[in-house]
Fold this sequence. Notes:
alpha+beta; 5-stranded antiparallel β-sheet; 4-stranded antiparallel β-sheet; binds flavin-adenine dinucleotide; 339 residues
Amino acid sequence: MHIPxxxxxxxxxxxxxxxxxxxxxDISKVLAGGTDLLVDLKQGxxxxxxxxxxxxxxxxxxxVEETGEAIRVGALVTLNQASGNETIRKFFPAMIDxxxxxxxxxxxxxxTVVGNIAGAVPSSDLAPFFVVAGGEAELSNGESQRRxxxxxxxxxxxxxxxxxxxxxxxxxxxKPPPRTGISYQKFMLREANALAVAGVAARLTLAGSIGGGxxxxxxxxxxxxxxxxxxxxxxxxxxxxxxxxDRSTRGTGDGEGGIMDSxxxxxxxxxxxxxxxxxxxxxxxxxxxxxxxxxxxxxxxxSARPITDIRGTKEYRFDLIEVLTERTLEEALSRxxxx
Length: 339
Ligand SMILES: Cc1cc2nc3c(=O)[nH]c(=O)nc-3n(C[C@H](O)[C@H](O)[C@H](O)COP(=O)(O)OP(=O)(O)OC[C@H]3O[C@@H](n4cnc5c(N)ncnc54)[C@H](O)[C@@H]3O)c2cc1C
């Protein structure tokens, strides 16, 4: 196995890069870190490519920016750079966990966040994270930009909505609303350099706002979030939930505010990331509890479309989805509560 003869282009602008992609059309590919692409070329999974258009020398793609509403990740930001970024750490600990579960440190030094989405590999770890976080892909053809949801961008295995001479220049992640938690859990066959057998990301947003009245009888959701029991909320006076009771028992009942919004997305169990829409509809308005999460997980399982392959059987993957969904919901809840 060897990489076929290929000409490497190193344009300095996005317009130049797009012009090259246009000129060489279906015999060219964008090159970022190369950790997927070079392996695919070497193993003959992708053939007929004669030109690689590297993004390496293009300015403006190497940073993580915090805009008013979102975090914007450039196409050259590596997994390790993202993982070390303070803004990402602050807003998206689940993204840090996700990256920590991927490949190995040396690969993460080269592999890019954007490349993980642009490659549209069905076991992508970051894809479900971006889907539940409401992430958007920013595309450029050198002249104009357009944006679309990551869930619409990934069409199937190695297939995206990227036009032939478009580049995915940035990924945007909207800052999460208050009382939102995200989690990603993955099962893999060994600790490093292993793709997901199955993975699930979940986002939960709880109703109400933290600290909106403390023990002074504030809003309905305050009682469960570190107040002194909440005298004015639905939870009722004397409810121990707000006074440091065992929160791991879940089942917080009313007073905390139910689940206002949620999203569950899975990887490695279908050709593209799947959103467990029925499970999310089930969760809406419910008070979070172990039982509710268990039922949601059983519903989520039905959205998976797994196959049997070298990493696991179809049946095993169905079971994994159920277990992982429950775990991600638990962790997302803890994060939404600020625990
Ligand atoms: C040993 C090993 C372990 C791995 N482990 C994991 C893992 O645990 N989880 C996981 O999800 N992945 C894993 N991967 C896959 C890979 O590392 C990631 O998908 C990586 O993030 C891809 O980024 P890259 O910069 O290397 O992309 P590249 O290989 O450069 O590109 C990937 C694809 O996306 C296209 N592309 C890249 N950037 C753009 C862009 N800006 N615009 C348009 N198209 C673009 C390329 O043309 C190519 O088709 C592993 C890979 C290896 C080799």
